[in-house]
Write a structure and sequence with these properties.
With 177 residues, chain A is mostly beta strands. Chain A is built from 1 helix and 16 strands. In chain A, strand 3 and strand 4 form a beta hairpin. Chain B has 498 residues and is an alpha+beta fold. The chains are: A mainly beta (177), B alpha+beta (498). Chains in contact: A-B, A-C, B-C, B-D, C-D.
């Protein structure tokens, strides 16, 4: 088994790559061949990866079935690993690009709602200010990621919110009449 | 000596006091029970729940602990109560020494409009703007028009970028005034706002000054702190990369004049905006500054030691002409923020902490493995400082140190700072306080092929191993008949044949 | 550039190279796959199993990696192959630069008896003793009688205390000769032994020298390394606490003379024994020394950078009169040994690593959390270095830094060193290589009442909580009927009534 | 329960002390009263103990029933905690001083036996050299802890030994005829 090859479809930043593991320490990425050695290093998530000798100091965290969060140079990347069968199913169902974006504005961190600057029924353009949240003594402006129509405002000024709590729900412009 | 602070600055002050043989007394909120400053102090006392208003800002509790523990002095650090004249007074009235300037000097500089008046009188150049707090957004609009757009609204009691708003047209003034006042009220308990002309792409250059109780005042050269985001400094260096010796002398003298004007004592920082060959007084911070280590590294002076010596009545250890200037130093503020997600505050538990080492590298930290990074306090986790023979050497050393620094469990500013240190304008010393706005490319994704392949391979290998291990576990389990049997009995189905 | 070493020195060399923009290539044995030097290098290659003879001493493997990775230079660090003339030659013959002295200089100083001859010829004072290796224990006894007891037997190929034995009477010579030869054979592959008069309670003072390829030689002042155990240095400082300026100049000049005598190039250390106002040449270490950081801290020089510059043909960056001397620096060697159990080698896994910080503190480490400390290599885990305005300030800073340093999972030398730093003779500079033998009280148990009560209370509270938690778990389990039921079914008894 | 008092007998360096926990944060050691707060700090064994404010930075490891290994200032101490009943039993059986020393010489670390300098039947005095073990390239002399008679030599030169492996067994002088 360890002498054989295993093929995975690995997605990073919305792009899928083919990674073949084996035989032995060989690993191929979209046809580029490497000798690779991965070893756990440090207290928790630290890993050392050597690829053809090049030394990469990484932090890796398992984030769900097939999902890995890997940190390099202090930046975190979400990487999804599918085996061949799962990748084929994913391709057929047309969902290769991951979950569709939910049309809502979530609190990016715990904090206090200072102001909601939109009302239901209003139309906002990408970049428009939607809400102000105070956290760590600083006011943080939250802006619309895309053109949309405000469907629902779920919080009010003065309210404490958790991370990822939905503040405003949108109806996508596309879906709007 | 009681340290009325937390985090890295409390640790720094405790180190300085310990080296002088001074007994150190720490205080901690419920969120900080096992923070480094608690572990390193000789004694530590609880002062209440996490919110600063109920702990680190609670003057009565602090004085009560100081009295009970027999403290003879109080060091305020920076932030919190460090620039509250009332606190300095209360400490002195309790019969203890306040390690900082006299309350009068704090007040003179703390009221930003008052400070502007006094600086103008002392012949220190000041940016055009109002000399008194604005009563209303109406008044703000008028003052703004007079100073000339763009203008900046600032908290009279402020500092550190809180309660600040830049306004470019008259009809934005109203909103900005309200927001700035709200922030000022929250941060300083005082909503007063004043207005100043806003200088486009100025550099932020500040001068470290030191004064003793005998009227001696020296400066320890300048620091360049132009790399900022929303008036929060991210990276500081000393000396400034583009100041000539003549300018260095002139700005140093202006800073000494500013300190003398308020009969200053102790460590202080006079901040200037530098624009088109001119410099303008911005404000004076009447305390030890976050970025004091870069000054320590180029001068060899221990500023916390100087603070204690001055507070105990000793004269300054050096005359102006004796202050040395060796090489170049850079400080990176490592904050719990996600620079690539709009600097959102990051929270989490510190799972790994690997510190860089070797020559010319210094870490001033306030965290340890297991520390929970919440939202109650400033996001500053620690400061990484590098010293080199010259600016290029210090930059290279800092790049290496940032690469070695590993903080697991919470996003930090480190990766952005590593990019800044490798950016041509930064390397050429073309700095301004708009630097980050002008370099949007620093925030772009730009994985090299080898790095991207490394991420893909790491994830694939991890998933591969995980699946293999699961398979091994499954096989092992199936080989143990009782395991399956037990499960099936519990869930009421017939036992699987082993 | 390939670093043919491991541990803290490999990490140090990699840092130095990285700052000069040199691509770094690490090698590692199976025991070091995730060591810091592997993580910090640009590239890293496996060179075999843990025993050094099959990895870090395997010249062929090292040269093979160097060639495959396209290295143009090899840095040997200290220990391992650093003082093997053959290795230096093999590197040069492979078309790469050896970052170290020429093979001839290594050989001249590597053969300790040859070195003594050449030093005597160059007018460098030498301790009385033999100039050629001893053929037998018989010959050793005669030579010992001639030099005058006490004498010390030393490995010709040696250094670092291995293969050394002090002998006080003629009838001890036989046993000591055999033991020293055995150790020398094991450590250096060469059993040659020579004899020297043994100086009672001498001080170990060594001088850092540096030479370029153009015939310039400078010294960077001396280091005092008298705190030793069995000729293994534990604590070093620079400058020496009791050398006057005249003596400093004389010993520096003698060291430069020694380097010139062997046409030295690069970093080297000339070791002297200082006894009753006289100093005697002991040996020259033809490599970077473990304790080089104290010299870096008082001179501001980066010795690894100097090594690379000299190796690439550049002249020395400073003339003798330009070498500065600022303050005082102390290094503590943090080794995996149990100082209170006869310095037994300690093993274990590093569970916690908390490093000290703040001004004037430097850590050069070769370990990280998770590192397994075995017996294959030197016990040096890292070096803690502190710099201060003067010796007293450096000592106080080091005491604080040692208190902050926390290494969990393996015993270290740190607690003993903390005691040394607080001992009156040490503080007064009354040092000798017999210091530890003369201060048995350092090894005594001496818990203060408050510390003892803290241990008692901690243990009692931990046990108290453990019992309470166990009780809670038991109660919780009893409240879940299935748990008991399942157990009883498995073990064939009747179910307990829930 | 947390409001009450619990009494323990705590042994350190062969001496027993009475520690009373409670009520609340009070702790009494041989009658000396403290306010104590203990909190876990750091990755693994780290603990912060405040006693009347005095800050102690400790590492603590559970080493068996009632046994704790506590490290302060880098030095490890074995501390044994017994509840009142166990302490009473221990007193009655006269075993308060811990396990009796085993009359043997064990290897203090893994290494290679270089030499055994005693033979069965020989008498050694406390401090006499018994064996030489090489570890970390250094020869380590192992000496007799007490006067004894050599009963058995269990290893020979050149042999690799594990930590705590018995090298030489003694017959105690007292037990010898």
């Amino acid at each position: 088994m360890t002498g054989g090859e295993t093929r995975y479809a690995v997605a990073l930043s919305g792009k899928q790559h083919e990674v073949v593991i084996g035989p032995g320490d060989a690993v191929t990425v979209d046809g580029r061949r490497y000798e690779a050695s991965l070893a756990s290093a440090g207290a928790a998530a630290g890993h050392s990866l050597l690829m053809n000798g090049a030394s990469h100091d990484l932090l890796a965290r398992h984030a769900g079935p097939g999902a890995w969060e890997i940190e390099a140079d202090g930046r975190a990347f979400a990487v999804e690993v599918l085996d061949e069968r799962a990748a084929a199913v994913r391709r057929l169902s047309g969902a290769a690009k991951g979950p569709r974006s939910v049309p809502s504005l979530k609190a990016p961190m715990p904090g206090l709602v200072v102001r909601i600057t939109v009302a239901p029924g209003e139309t906002v353009a990408a970049g428009d200010r939607v809400a102000i949240i105070e956290a760590m003594k600083m006011e943080n402006e939250l802006r619309a990621a895309a053109d949309a129509c405000v469907a629902k405002v779920l919080v009010s000024p003065g309210q404490a919110v958790e991370k990822d709590q939905v503040l405003v729900e949108f109806a996508n412009q596309a879906a709007a009449p | 000596m009681l340290v009325a602070n937390r985090g890295e600055i409390a640790a720094r002050v405790i180190r300085g006091a310990r080296e002088l043989g001074i007994r150190t007394i720490a205080v901690f909120s419920e969120a900080d029970r096992t923070s480094p400053h608690v572990l390193h102090a000789d004694e530590a006392y609880a002062i209440g729940p996490a919110p600063a208003s109920e702990s680190y800002l609670a003057v009565d509790k602090l004085l009560d602990v100081a009295r009970r523990a027999g403290a003879v002095a109080v060091h305020p650090g920076y932030g919190f109560l460090s620039e509250r004249g009332d606190f300095a007074e209360a400490v002195e009235q309790a019969g203890m020494t306040f390690v900082g300037p006299p309350a009068a000097a704090i007040r003179a500089m703390g009221d930003k409009t008052e400070a502007r008046r006094r600086m103008r009188a002392a012949g220190v150049p000041v940016v055009p703007g109002t000399d008194s707090p604005l009563a209303s957004s109406q008044e703000a609009e008028e003052a703004a028009c007079e100073a000339g757009f763009p203008v900046v609204l600032k908290a009279s009691a402020g500092g550190g970028g809180k309660g600040m708003r830049v306004v470019r047209t008259a009809n934005e003034v109203g909103d900005a005034f309200a927001a700035a006042a709200r922030e000022a009220q929250a941060a300083f308990g005082d909503a007063s706002i004043y207005v100043e002309r806003f200088l486009e792409r100025p550099r932020h250059i500040e001068v470290q000054v030191f004064a003793d109780r005998r009227g001696n005042v020296v400066h320890l050269f300048e620091r360049e702190c132009s790399i900022q985001r929303r008036h929060q400094k991210l990276l500081e260096e000393a000396p400034s990369p583009l100041l000539g010796p003549g300018e260095r002398e002139r700005i140093g003298e202006a800073a000494v004049r500013a300190a003398r004007a308020v009969e200053y004592v102790g460590a202080g920082t006079v901040e200037f905006l530098y624009h088109g060959g001119e410099f303008f007084f911005l404000e004076m911070n009447t305390r030890l500054q976050v970025e004091h280590p870069v000054t320590e590294m180029i001068t060899g002076a221990d500023l916390v030691e100087w603070q204690f010596r001055v507070a105990s009545g000793e004269p300054l250890p050096l005359r102006q002409e004796e202050v040395p200037l060796h090489g170049h130093a850079i400080e990176c503020r490592i904050t719990s923020e996600s620079p690539f997600e709009g600097f959102l505050p990051a929270t989490g538990v510190v799972r790994e902490l690997t510190l860089p080492g070797g020559p010319g590298v210094r870490w001033d930290g306030g965290i340890a493995v297991g520390a929970e990074i919440g939202l109650h306090y400033d996001p500053l986790l620690g400061k990484l400082v590098a010293h080199g023979r010259d600016r290029a050497a210090a930059v290279r050393r800092m790049i290496g140190a940032l690469a070695e620094l590993r903080i697991g469990g919470v996003s930090t500013s480190a990766p952005l700072l590593a990019r800044v240190l490798d950016e041509p304008d930064f390397l050429a010393g073309r700095l301004s306080t708009s630097y980050l706005d002008d370099h949007a490319e620093l925030f772009e994704d730009d994985l090299s092929e080898s790095r991207r392949d490394a991420l893909l391979v790491a994830a694939a290998l991890l998933e591969h191993r995980r699946r293999r291990e699961r398979r091994v576990r499954r096989i092992t389990r199936e080989a143990r008949p009782f395991a399956a049997w037990r499960r099936s009995l519990l869930f009421g189905t017939a036992p699987a044949t082993p």
